[in-house]
UniProtKB/TrEMBL annotation:
Residues 1-157 are annotated as: Disordered. The gene is ftsY. The lineage of its organism: Archaea, Methanobacteriati, Methanobacteriota, Stenosarchaea group, Halobacteria. It comes from Haloferax prahovense (strain DSM 18310 / JCM 13924 / TL6). Keywords: Cell cycle, Cell division, Cell membrane, Cytoplasm, GTP-binding, Hydrolase, Membrane, Nucleotide-binding, Receptor. PANTHER family: SIGNAL RECOGNITION PARTICLE RECEPTOR SUBUNIT ALPHA (PTHR43134). This is Signal recognition particle receptor FtsY. GO terms for cellular component: cytoplasm; plasma membrane. Residues 420-433 form the SRP54-type proteins GTP-binding domain. Involved in targeting and insertion of nascent membrane proteins into the cytoplasmic membrane. Acts as a receptor for the complex formed by the signal recognition particle (SRP) and the ribosome-nascent chain (RNC). Part of the signal recognition particle protein translocation system, which is composed of SRP and FtsY.
Length: 450
């Protein structure tokens, strides 16, 4: 069901993901090139520090010799006090070697040792060139993210590169230009009404342009969320709990079914009779299709197969009178629901539309349901609009949904009429009808290709 549109939506998601990632990588490569150029000057500056360490090496040798002399004369100085810290050994060595010299040379030697300690750190290996470049690139990326960009068209190249370098992806308008155009063509080719397609595209733009998400939430996931929201907004218009409406309505509940000939209106009535039976409701069928030859026979076959009462008049009778009789019968026999069929009115026929308006006035149905084929696409959408103008439909039922690869009618009807799709016909059997769930519909359209 709706496999064709599903493939087109998945193609859009993949196109946006590929476009955004390719541009982000290109911007990151350019930023890395600039970082490499800055890093080339870093080793030259760092080379000054090792040169300053050369005198420190010479002093270290001198200090080592002084330590050796101190060790040689240590035993000869019997009256000398034992050394109590690291500084006393060089001090003793200096006093013995220089004889009557005062303590200043020894103090200078100790000071020199203290000065040599940081110099020894300078002898440690400096970070290699790759590490320097990585550090510079990371710092540049983080700094670019915090800077304001004056380019009104988007976050700008540096900020985009920074976002990619720090594990994020920024989607710009230019990333969506081609994919959105292709999506618009795909929606129109899938029989989505033009106004609905434009609404979907606008919602996607609002939700994607300028968005930044961590790569753990991929661009594909971000696009899927935008598609989900855009589709759900147009599909879920006017939704209400059908079962709750029936349960809370005063009995008998009268449902009128409208739509042109041949779309499965009578079969849908029979399916709903079975649907209500499973919920514990009793039903009666009333044939208001008094113009078409054979209409009585067709609906009678369904009534007998389901063991339901049928109210019918002779061909050419008043449709409003037939359905009114059905309501009277339901009241007299404590029947819960009246299911009233009507003629297959062409939305271009003013006389037939006037007859539908009369039924609405005489019977005052609780719900008027429009029935059409899902495979009719934009024709079904236009007919739904016309029928809604004539009799204020409360919802729609789409037959042959299992044979529809496009899904344009399912997406469009609720939006253009402001009235929800309530059921989908998915086969010929009486049980082959399912309640329409907007969330389930969107998940079906956005599911991965098998």
């Amino acid at each position: 069901m709706f496999d064709g549109l599903k493939k087109k939506l998945n193609r859009f998601r993949n196109d946006v993901e590929e476009t955004a990632e390719e541009k982000a990588e290109a911007a990151a490569d350019e930023a890395e090139t600039e970082a490499d150029a800055e890093a080339e000057s870093a080793p030259a500056d760092a080379a000054v520090e090792p040169e300053a360490s050369e005198p420190a090496d010479t002093d270290s040798v001198g200090d080592a010799d002084a330590d050796s002399e101190a060790d040689a004369v240590e035993d000869a100085s019997a009256d000398a006090e034992p050394a109590t810290d690291a500084d006393s050994a060089p001090e003793q060595a200096a006093a013995t070697a220089e004889g009557d010299a005062d303590a200043e040379p020894a103090t200078a030697t100790a000071d020199q040792q203290m000065a040599d300690e940081p110099a020894a750190d300078a002898d440690e290996p400096a970070p290699d060139e790759a590490e320097q470049r990585e550090s510079l690139a990371s710092d540049a990326a983080k700094a670019a993210l915090t800077e304001e960009d004056d380019d009104s068209s988007g976050p700008g190249r540096l900020r985009r590169a920074a976002a990619f370098a720090t594990g994020k992806v920024v989607i710009e308008e230019e990333d969506l230009e081609d994919p959105l155009w292709e999506l618009e063509m795909a929606l129109l080719q899938s029989d989505v009404e033009m106004q609905v397609a434009e609404e979907i595209l606008e919602t996607i733009r609002e939700k994607l342009i300028g968005e930044t998400r961590k790569q753990v939430q991929s661009t594909g996931q971000l696009v899927s969320e935008a598609l989900h929201d855009a589709l759900y907004e147009v599909i879920s218009v006017g939704q209400f709990d059908f079962d709750q409406r029936i349960a809370e309505a005063d009995k008998p509940v009268t449902l009128i079914f409208t739509g042109i000939n041949g779309v499965g209106k009578t079969t849908t009535i029979a399916k709903l009779a079975r649907y209500f039976e499973k919920q514990g409701y009793s039903t009666v069928l009333a044939n208001g299709d008094t113009y078409r030859a054979g209409a009585n026979e067709q609906i009678r076959e369904h009534a007998e197969a389901l063991d339901k009462k049928l109210i019918a008049h002779e061909q050419g009778g008043d449709p409003a009178a037939v359905i009114y009789d059905g309501v009277e019968y339901a009241e007299a026999h404590d029947i819960d629901i009246v299911l009233g069929d009507t003629a297959g009115r062409l939305h271009t026929s003013n006389d037939l539309m006037a007859q539908l308006e009369k039924i609405d006035r005489v019977v005052g149905p609780d719900l008027t349901l429009f029935v059409d084929e899902a495979v009719a696409g934009q024709d079904a959408v236009e007919r739904a609009r016309q029928f809604n103008d004539a009799a204020a439909i409360d919802g729609a039922i789409l037959t042959k949904a299992d044979a529809d690869s496009n899904g344009g009618a399912a997406i469009s009807i609720a939006y253009v009429t402001g009235k929800p799709i309530l059921f989908l016909g998915v086969g010929q059997g009486y049980d082959h009808i399912e309640k329409f769930d907007p969330e389930q519909m969107v998940e079906r359209l956005l599911g991965e290709d098998e």
